[in-house]
C-alpha cells in the first residue's frame, strides 16, 4: 500500500505519493533511468536544498507535507535563482503582483510566509486542499498552467532530493 494513501483521495492528491513511492528508488533498482545531475546551467539545486531545514520547519509549523512546501518554494524561487537568493525570497512573494519582496534573511521570509500565506494552507494534507488554499490567498491567478506545472514540480521533489543527495 502507498505510504500516506487514503482510499478516498483524488488522483490529484495521490500523484505526489506515487512519485515518492515509485520514483527514483524503483528507477535505481531496475536500471530503468539514471538520476539527472543535481545542478545544470540554469539551476543551482544544491543551493536551494541548503534551505531544506527552514522549509521543513515551515511545513511542520503549518502541518503541511514537506514536499508541498519544497515544491512550491522551488518553483516560485526558480530553485533559488540569483535574484531570489539576493532577496532571501523562497516564495515568489511580491508587492501586490509587482516587484518581489526583499527580506533581511531566509528566516524572515519564511516567517512572513507562515504568518501571511500559512493561514490559507494550514493543515492541508491533500494537494487539492493545498492548491485551494493558495488560490484563496491569491497565489498566481494569472497563469492558467500554474497549477499543473506546480503539481508536476511537487511530484518530482523526491527525484531531485535523490539527485542532489539530500535524502
Structural summary, described in words:
This protein is mostly helical and 167 residues long. It has a single domain (47-163), classed as Lysozyme. It contains ten helices and no strands. It is globular, with a radius of gyration of 16 Å.
Structural topology:
Layout: H1 11-22, H2 24-30, H3 45-49, H4 52-62, H5 66-76, H6 82-87, H7 106-116, H8 118-121, H9 127-137, H10 146-163
Helix pairs in contact: 1-2, 1-10, 4-5, 4-7, 5-10
Keywords:
Lysozyme, single chain, disordered N terminus, mainly alpha, 57% helix, 10 helices, 167 residues
By CATH reckoning, the class would read Mainly Alpha
CATH architecture: Orthogonal Bundle
Count the strands?
Answer: 0
Q: Termini separation (Å)?
A: 21 Å
What is the CATH T-level topology?
Lysozyme
Q: Uncertain spans, ≥5 residues at pLDDT below 50?
A: 1-5, 14-24
Provide a compact summary of the structure.
The chain is mainly alpha-helical. It is built from 10 helices and no strands.
Amino acid at each position: 500500500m502507498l505510504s500516506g494513501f487514503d482510499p478516498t483521495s483524488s488522483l490529484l492528491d495521490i500523484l505526489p505519493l506515487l512519485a515518492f513511492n515509485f520514483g527514483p528508488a524503483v528507477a535505481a533498482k531496475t536500471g530503468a533511468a539514471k538520476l539527472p545531475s543535481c545542478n545544470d546551467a540554469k539551476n543551482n539545486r544544491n543551493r536551494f536544498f541548503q534551505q531544506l531545514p527552514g522549509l521543513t520547519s515551515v511545513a511542520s509549523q503549518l502541518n503541511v507535507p514537506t514536499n508541498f512546501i519544497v515544491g512550491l518554494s522551488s518553483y516560485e524561487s526558480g530553485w533559488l535563482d540569483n535574484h531570489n537568493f539576493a532577496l532571501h525570497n523562497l516564495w515568489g512573494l511580491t508587492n501586490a503582483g509587482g516587484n518581489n519582496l526583499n527580506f533581511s534573511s531566509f528566516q524572515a521570509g519564511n516567517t512572513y510566509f507562515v504568518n501571511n500565506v500559512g493561514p490559507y494552507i494550514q493543515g492541508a494534507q491533500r494537494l487539492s486542499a493545498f492548491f485551494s488554499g493558495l488560490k484563496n490567498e491569491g497565489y498566481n491567478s494569472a497563469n492558467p498552467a500554474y497549477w499543473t506545472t506546480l503539481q508536476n514540480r511537487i511530484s518530482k521533489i523526491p527525484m531531485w532530493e535523490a539527485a542532489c543527495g539530500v535524502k
